[in-house]
Automatic annotation (TrEMBL):
UniProt organism field: Pseudomonas chlororaphis
Entry protein name: 3-oxoacyl-ACP reductase
Family, as annotated: Belongs to the short-chain dehydrogenases/reductases (SDR) family.
PANTHER family: BLL5898 PROTEIN, OXIDOREDUCTASE, SHORT-CHAIN DEHYDROGENASE/REDUCTASE FAMILY (AFU_ORTHOLOGUE AFUA_5G02870)
Gene3D superfamilies on file: NAD(P)-binding Rossmann-like Domain
Amino acid sequence: MSSTRTVIVTGASSGIGLGLARAFLARGYNVVGNARSPERLAEAAASLGHGERFVGVAGDIADPATAAQLVEQAIARFGQVDVLVNNAGFFLPKPFVDYSAAELESLLQTNLKGVVYASQAVARHMIERRQGHIINISASVALQPNLAVPAALPVLIKGGINQMTRALALELSPFNIQVNAVAPGIIDTPMHDPAHRAFLDGLQPAGRVGRIEDIADAVLYLAGADFTTGVVLPVDGGMSSGKW
């Protein structure tokens, strides 16, 4: 086993996932990054540098075979998996009655099944080692729904991830595995149109959207927190504190 810690980050080719990969590399970790597109993953790897400490594994995280390959590649290259960050996912806000069957299926595939399959594959390895951290990226709106951002289906799925986080934290505690979640508010990523910035800034009591670095700081804390488990940590400028 290597003395250098290894993390798997899903959805690592852009946005928060790319920022997490960069933050873990800067902290000295080995990183195994996943994304659906081989081309975008190659671009991300080139932008990150640290070629010897970053391995890209392309594939749909909603496929159990991709999750298994992530663990296999991590062990083959670096000897173990110390941290899993279930970051892959997308946010689709719209009125509840307007969601299509195809949209529901897509949300379930990536936002739910991707978390389940990756967590199962990594947990089997961590149970054998009797140590590890699983960190789920949830959403602030799953803690405090917002009339200005109708998103009942993402709330349904991310709310389920929050409850799974707590249940899995208890189940895996005897194996010295910590399971936590980070619930971001609105974060400044390429998915947001700059023309909507003033509106988005106004959705947080803090008066601004979050930075990717804000999420990375929280994830890095949880990756090293051995006496914290079953926590859903809001990083949202106060957005989930209640009505304001």
